[in-house]
Amino acid sequence: MRTAAAFATPVTPASAAAPAPHARLEGVTRVYPARSGGDEVHALGPISFDLRQGEFFSVVGPSGCGKSTLLDVLSGLAKPTEGTVTFEGAPVDGKVPDGVGVVFQEDASFPWLSVEDNVAFGLRRAGTDAAETRRRVEFAIGFMGLRDFRRAYPSQLSGGMRQRVCIARTLVMQPRLILLDEPFGALDQQTRLLMGDELLRLWRETGATVMLITHALDEANLLSDRIGVMSARPGRFIEVVETGWDRERDSSLAERSEFGAVTSRLWSLLRGESLRAMGQGQAAEKRA
Ligand SMILES: Nc1ncnc2c1ncn2[C@@H]1O[C@H](COP(=O)(O)OP(=O)(O)OP(=O)(O)O)[C@@H](O)[C@H]1O
């Protein structure tokens, strides 16, 4: 187990001798054009960063610092203004590559489809044959504990169960990189903890690389191998904190004293940036 003093790791790309990264951002920025008489918004970067094969990486940062923008650029949902993004060595350019799955905070299930049909949606759209679709849907539904709800509609489910449907929908596509943007943000604390354990199980059993965006420092701490702490906008990593937790961890980790040391470290890095971000927000309000 590492001590707090050993947490920081370089935020620059790995050296040539290191294993190939699963995904890489090099000199990436994202600037949003000015809206109705305002200024353009420099939301992100420049940011250079490697996601390691099979790691659980979380991103924390002050409100509005560019976390979702980072996820959009990494997933191919948005193009960087400058710089390059690669996934498994190939450029990511304006479209989500095969092998990348994205889960959002808002409930993205289709209300008119049953759980089963929601989960099968992506495979059917991709033209996967019926037997393979059945096999994969069966696996994902079982994995996410949805067997008893397969014929239910999203409106009949709790928020936590609906989010399980969304994760199952991603899982069925067999992603090698899973990107999650505040997936548990709308859930109560207990459900959040249980969903965190589920996410860890999914990560361990699929071997996928996971990048999670969260506001909750304890959640980032518990789930992650590494945590990227972002500055106020334009977001850059001010430090990447390495937790050193075992792969077999679960929410009982939160009872350990080293756990508190990591959360304190995250907050000490974030506090000043959060104050800076609040100042940016107040200045923008005054201008409006
Ligand atoms: N389409 C857009 N046009 C203009 N500005 C945008 C657009 N999308 C985001 N922004 C701005 O870019 C900045 C970064 O936004 P982003 O949503 O990436 O931050 P975030 O860290 O995910 O925010 P939050 O913590 O509130 O979820 C914010 O100032 C936001 O207002």
TrEMBL record:
One of its GO terms (molecular function) is ATP binding. It comes from the Bacteria. CDD domains: ABC_NrtD_SsuB_transporters (cd03293). It holds the Pfam family ABC_tran. InterPro entries: AAA+_ATPase, ABC_transporter-like_ATP-bd, ABC_transporter-like_CS, ABC_transporter_ATP-bind, P-loop_NTPase. Keywords: ATP-binding, Nucleotide-binding, Transport. Residues 23-257 form the ABC transporter domain. Belongs to the ABC transporter superfamily. PANTHER family: ALIPHATIC SULFONATES IMPORT ATP-BINDING PROTEIN SSUB, TAURINE IMPORT ATP-BINDING PROTEIN-RELATED. This is NitT/TauT family transport system ATP-binding protein. It comes from Albimonas donghaensis.
